[in-house]
Design brief:
With 266 residues, the chain is α/β, with parallel strands linked by helices. The chain is built from 8 helices and 9 strands. It is 35% helix and 21% strand. α1 crosses α7 and α5 crosses α6. The structure holds pyridoxal-5'-phosphate. Belongs to the class-III pyridoxal-phosphate-dependent aminotransferase family. HemL subfamily.
Length: 266
């Protein structure tokens, strides 16, 4: 007798992201978030990192040929969405762009990981420029925090709305800015605001601000969002559900002896 569970197959989400050995961010975080949201993560490491719970100490991009080879090995799987995280070299960017281009018509969620929460730089000006030119036009939802938004739109203006609109003009489908202080709505102290900019307009959500510092909150949000889109939710619903999921994971985070708290997604 075959021991294969019958029933609908889970939607497969292809994750291209760095490996963080702490499990706070990167591939492990993404896989957990995707599984918890009903998806099946297939994972391709774009970089290996040396880090502790305080900061990233070393990033080694994975060979671009290996990345392409791993993607080829997954070609028989029905991929329903793609999530991209850390892209730490120009060759990696080329491979990621090729892999995304090879799979048109599915949602692509990109978390532009430019700097670690601990402070380490994870990108360069040239790489950000290449990211804007080559990957951004293929993105359905970009999930920058305010700092990433600023760095991706240097010279575009002062406020989040102008900056986000610049990204939309560059070909990105929607931008979900986390920790936004968009002045259109005053955010009460003790709350944090996330704002979605898309073709239908601007939508804001506010969540009680959590104290403490968390590692991998951006990964959790983007991965949950990719899984939600893969199961067929609308952009608005998926953004809302992914935020709720992330907020819950942060409220359940555990505190290692040193460094940032690690979200519990499962
Ligand atoms: N992805 C990987 C592989 C990382 O190493 C990091 C940063 O350490 C991140 C994503 C971003 O995580 P965070 O925003 O918590 O620094």
């Amino acid at each position: 007798m075959r021991n294969v569970r019958q029933g609908p197959n889970p939607p497969v989400v292809l994750v291209l992201a760095g490996h963080d050995p702490t499990g706070g961010a990167g591939l492990v975080a993404d896989s957990e978030a995707i599984a918890a949201c009903g998806g099946w993560a297939v994972t391709i490491p774009t970089a290996l990192t040396v880090q502790d719970c305080r900061d990233v100490h070393r990033v080694v991009p994975v060979d671009a040929g290996l990345i392409r080879g791993m993607a080829g090995g997954l070609s028989s799987l029905p991929i329903a969405a793609i999530k991209v995280g850390l892209v730490a070299s120009s060759d990696t960017l080329d491979a990621v762009v090729a892999i995304v281009r090879d799979r048109p018509g599915i949602p692509v969620v990109v978390d532009p990981v430019l700097k670690a929460g601990g402070g380490a730089e994870l990108s360069t000006t040239e790489l950000i420029e290449a990211f804007r030119e080559r990957l951004l036009p293929l993105v359905d939802v970009l999930t920058p925090n305010r700092l990433e938004l600023e760095r991706l739109t240097k010279g575009a203006g002062q406020d989040d709305t102008t900056r986000a609109k610049r990204l939309l003009t560059s070909g990105c489908g929607a931008v979900l800015v986390t920790g936004s202080d968009d002045p259109e709505v005053e955010v009460p102290t003790g709350e944090v605001q996330q704002v979605l900019y898309c073709a239908d307009g601007r939508f804001a959500w506010r969540w009680p601000r959590l104290t403490g510092r968390y590692h991998g909150s951006g990964c959790t949000l983007a991965a949950a969002l990719s899984a939600r889109l893969a199961v067929g939710e609308s952009l608005h619903e998926a953004c809302e559900q992914a935020q709720a999921f992330t907020w819950r994971a942060l409220t359940r985070a555990w505190q290692p002896p040193v460094g940032q708290a690690l979200p519990r997604r499962l």
